[in-house]
Design goal:
By secondary structure, this protein is of the alpha+beta class. It is built from four helices and four strands; from the N terminus they run H-H-H-E-E-H-E-E.
Length: 152
């Protein structure tokens, strides 16, 4: 009978230890120098829409890159150079933006996911969704595949 209680106690202690390690080890905001992770939405893989106004999407990309060059971190500036087009309606009711990049195309970016996350964070700094809503921004690789989906 004491063996069964020992096993039960051992299982309970292990569960508490795992929960404590999992829940209690996040650094506070003051302790971390890293760029905050972008909030990822429940959307699994938004499709890159067809670019019906290439002049507008190219101009928006240029404006985004210019803003990041002036206001962004070094990581965001490096990542923003990879943005070809900014599509969507981020200032209207739908508040959806799609960043088309050349990430994954030539292998020159060591961490495409890190670059994509930096772009989501930069976009959040650049634009606010209208009417206090949360907008959705996704970063797409050279093949149009969504790398990261976040909010702004």
């Amino acid at each position: 009978m004491s063996t069964r209680h020992s096993r039960s106690a051992s299982v309970a202690l292990t569960a508490l230890l795992v929960a404590g390690l999992t829940l209690g080890c996040e650094p506070s905001a003051e302790e971390s120098d890293a760029t905050p992770e972008p909030q990822v939405t429940g959307l699994s893989e938004p499709k890159l829409p067809e670019d019906v106004d290439e002049a507008r999407s190219t101009r928006a990309a240029k404006e985004f890159r210019s803003w990041v060059a002036a206001e962004g971190t070094a990581r965001q500036q490096e990542a923003a150079a990879r943005v070809d087009r900014v599509l969507g309606d981020w200032e209207g009711e739908s508040a959806e933006a799609y960043l088309s990049t050349d990430l994954g195309g030539d292998g020159s970016v060591r961490d495409p996911m890190g670059a994509a996350k930096a772009l989501v964070t930069a976009f959040d700094g650049w634009k606010d969704a209208p009417n206090g809503m949360a907008g959705t921004v996704s970063v797409h690789d050279v093949n149009g595949t969504a790398l990261v989906v976040g909010t702004f």
